[in-house]
Specification:
mainly alpha; 25 helices; 5-stranded mixed β-sheet; globular; two-stranded antiparallel sheet
């Protein structure tokens, strides 16, 4: 057990430090946007209304922005400051999953489940970017832990203890409402129903605790929501009715129209490299009633998300704690050699496959880029070999965790290269070097959050939604015809072939900005294809 704790600690350290060492630029579409909103919050001192380029941003609650703003105030406008809050939320998620699994199945399963959760592809990836979803898991899992402790008690606990657990759960659920709305309350309610099926005598105490939790959650979340309603009348209707109820029941949100099975490949792919153990965990589900509780929690949550009209990959994150716990408990008791072998093959091949995919999609890389992938690949295979030779499940978990870390670190060596195709940092550097902001900047088919974040403060103060614009192809061509001559159009290089076909001759960019080509509108207008009669 002591060695398993050391591995758990090593995974926790790597999960936090490795992305900071990689130091990739901020990713668009979401990370740059959220960072720019927090940056504006620090600049203006308005900690009630999230704003982007001076306009209210009403789609997300406030707590994650508060965490980002606090980090920016402490550490300045750096990538590390932006990434530190989600990394700490990811670490808190790992610890809370371990705590919940320990309450259900014991210490070994708790440590194993935390390791599994932290090294799954989706939780690992989301902990590295500034998105709100990563903050939901720790609050949800601590609330779930409170409910499990009440349900699992052999003797009926006294009312003050029930209320205390309800208050703790409520504080967590209130913070989750301030992070991502009502999703954690839904998952807590689903778990409560599963626990009642398992322990019917616990119905009354769980009902009291959940009722207390809902009241406390409302009290915790209400001040900010009331302040937002006061500042922006109609906000409560917009966020809770339009975004939550109508967004779930009707195709009114931009993420609507996806099939019912949308989350199935996301869950299976996102749970890699550990998803290969799900079949074994399913076969052993009936051996312990508590496993059926967790399976019920996962299945009901999946059905709930799948039934909604609005679907997005990040919405599936609350499902992963249950998956991690099921796999963790299975691995502690079993030594699934076939699944371990397949997992090692996947881990060894993942970084190489990612590098090949990058070269096919974007650009060739120097041969030196293969060196860390080859070295870490050898270490991955060696750790996998040791896992296959292990005498028991816990020893196997230790070596599998090391294999996962080697593979994920190797894959992360690609992060700065990949980020260069998903950030506007170099474009901001070109604008900063000019010293003044053009009368208008059009960015073709790209979000501009990271562009705003990386602008010098003087240029950022001049920026408005009219001067910095995300433009479709049609909007960009309208700008070429009608915007002032000094307007700038930035085109990502992988769009250039399509863009050049709109002109008589391929236009020559006035500047290169990393993976962007930057054109002046006046020069583009001279080579524009004549309109067809």
């Amino acid at each position: 057990m002591h060695s398993l704790r050391r591995v758990f600690a090593a995974v926790a350290v790597v999960v936090v430090l490795a992305p900071l060492v990689a130091s990739a630029p901020l990713f668009d579409p979401d990370e740059g946007l959220h960072a720019a909103i927090a940056q504006e919050m620090v600049r203006t001192g308005d900690y009630v209304t999230p704003k982007f380029l001076g306009e209210p941003f009403l789609d997300k609650p406030i707590l994650f922005f508060w965490a980002e703003a606090a980090s920016l105030q402490l550490f300045g406008d750096t990538e590390a400051a932006v990434r530190l809050p989600p990394l700490l939320f990811g670490l808190a998620g790992m610890l809370s999953v371990a705590l919940l699994a320990r309450a259900l199945f014991g210490a070994a399963t708790g440590l194993t489940s935390g390791i599994v959760y932290a090294t799954m592809l989706v939780p690992f990836a989301l902990s590295q970017v500034a998105v709100h979803d990563i903050g939901v898991v720790p609050f949800m899992c601590i609330a779930a832990w409170c409910l499990v402790r009440l349900a699992a008690a052999d003797a009926s606990p006294r009312l003050p203890r029930v209320v205390l657990f309800g208050v703790v759960a409520g504080i967590c659920l209130g913070l989750s409402i301030l992070t991502k709305g009502l999703v954690a309350i839904v998952f807590a309610g689903v778990l409560c129903a599963c626990l009642v099926v398992w322990r019917r005598p616990a119905f009354a105490r769980l009902l009291v605790a959940l009722g207390v939790a809902v009241v406390v959650a409302a009290i915790v979340a209400a001040p900010w929501y009331v302040a937002m309603e006061h500042a922006h009348p109609g906000y409560l209707h917009y966020y809770f009715v339009e975004r939550h109820v109508q967004g779930y029941l009707t195709a009114t949100q931009r993420h609507a129209g996806r099939p019912f099975w949308y989350y199935v490949p996301i869950v299976l792919g996102g749970a890699l490299p550990w998803a290969l153990h799900l079949a074994g965990a399913a076969r052993s589900a009936g051996k312990r009633p508590r496993r059926l509780v967790v399976w019920g929690w996962f299945a009901a949550g999946l059905v709930f998300l799948s039934a909604g009209e609005s679907k997005l990959a990040t919405y599936a994150l609350p499902l992963f704690p249950a998956i991690a716990i099921l796999i963790g408990d299975h691995l502690v008791e079993a030594r699934p050699r076939a699944a371990i072998a397949m997992q090692v093959v996947f881990l060894a091949g993942l970084p190489a496959a990612a590098l090949v995919a990058y070269q096919v999609r974007f650009e060739p890389v120097p041969a030196a880029a293969w060196l860390p992938i080859v070295v870490l690949g050898i270490l991955t295979v060696d750790a996998g070999r040791r896992a296959l030779k292990s005498a028991d499940g816990i020893a196997g978990v230790r070596w599998l965790a090391q294999a996962c870390l080697c593979s994920l670190i190797a894959t992360m060596t690609l992060a700065p290269r990949l980020a260069s195709w998903m950030t506007a940092k170099d474009l901001a550097a070109v604008l900063n070097a000019a010293g003044t902001l053009p009368p208008r900047v059009l960015v073709l088919d790209e979000r501009i959050g990271s562009l705003v974040f990386y602008l010098d403060p003087a240029l950022r103060a001049e920026a408005t939604r009219d001067r910095l614009t995300e433009a479709s192809f049609a909007e960009a061509m309208a700008g070429v015809r009608h915007d002032p001559d000094e307007t700038v159009l930035a085109v990502r290089n992988d769009y250039l072939s399509r863009f050049n076909r709109l002109f008589r001759t391929a236009p020559i960019p006035g500047a290169r900005a990393g993976t962007f080509s930057v054109f002046r509108i006046a020069e583009l207008r001279d080579t524009l294809q004549p309109r067809k009669p």
